[in-house]
Amino acid sequence: MALAVNIMDPKSLIATFGLIGILAVIFAETGLLVGFFLPGDTLLVTAGVFTTTTAAHASGISPLPLPALMIGAPLCAVAGAQVGHFLGAKYGRKLFDRPDSRLFRKDHVEKAEHYFNKFGPAKAVVLARFAPVVRTFLNPLAGMLEMSAGRFLVFNIIGGVVWTESIILLGRFLGDRVKGIDKYILPVVAVAVLISVIPVIREIVKGPKKSGDTDERKKPPMPSGRHRR
């Protein structure tokens, strides 16, 4: 029997593949460059909603196990990002030097590099979790710019846990509080995702702090990608 699944529709993904599908998408979206188009934020919010029995049953979906989701999602997010960092460290700019590619667009890489240099490596790794597309490309970029694997792992864990847990719990809260949420889940999820990117918007508006390393951050990125911090 063929599976009719829309990979851009979180509800369709969850209904077809369940928890395993959610974890696979989170890994691919954060770790594999070709996964940048996959739903990350919307999938996590929707998954959180469907951990509530009422919302899940109303949509004809088996309720998702909240403990397994809360453990599995951050693990896959961290593991995926670490793979992305490894690929960037190993292959460097060769990953992005594909001018004729529709997937590896130059503006995606430039946007990730902008955040990396604007906020500094540590802060960028955490904040990028809340910025779709940027979170996919920033991980290999961090490896390419020689942010050490150990240092990256520390902030990768912080960002991965905060991102996944906060969005899942937001979905859970909405599933518990909003009656009939299954009937208008897409607009509710859209609002929830907008709320989730507020930390990034605030940081962009504030800009980098005026501190001793401000001058360093103002320096243009080196073409060779040397950026040790």
UniProtKB/TrEMBL annotation:
<dbReference type="InterPro" id="IPR032816">
    <property type="entry name" value="VTT_dom"/>
</dbReference>
<feature type="compositionally biased region" description="Basic and acidic residues">
    <location>
        <begin position="208"/>
        <end position="219"/>
    </location>
</feature>
<dbReference type="InterPro" id="IPR032818">
    <property type="entry name" value="DedA-like"/>
</dbReference>
<feature type="transmembrane region" description="Helical">
    <location>
        <begin position="68"/>
        <end position="88"/>
    </location>
</feature>
<feature type="transmembrane region" description="Helical">
    <location>
        <begin position="184"/>
        <end position="201"/>
    </location>
</feature>
<keyword id="KW-0812">Transmembrane</keyword>
<comment type="similarity">
    <text>Belongs to the DedA family.</text>
</comment>
<feature type="region of interest" description="Disordered">
    <location>
        <begin position="208"/>
        <end position="229"/>
    </location>
</feature>
<dbReference type="Pfam" id="PF09335">
    <property type="entry name" value="VTT_dom"/>
</dbReference>
<feature type="transmembrane region" description="Helical">
    <location>
        <begin position="152"/>
        <end position="172"/>
    </location>
</feature>
<keyword id="KW-1133">Transmembrane helix</keyword>
<keyword id="KW-0472">Membrane</keyword>
<keyword id="KW-1003">Cell membrane</keyword>
<protein>
    <submittedName>
        <fullName>DedA family protein</fullName>
    </submittedName>
</protein>
<feature type="domain" description="VTT">
    <location>
        <begin position="38"/>
        <end position="172"/>
    </location>
</feature>
<feature type="transmembrane region" description="Helical">
    <location>
        <begin position="12"/>
        <end position="38"/>
    </location>
</feature>
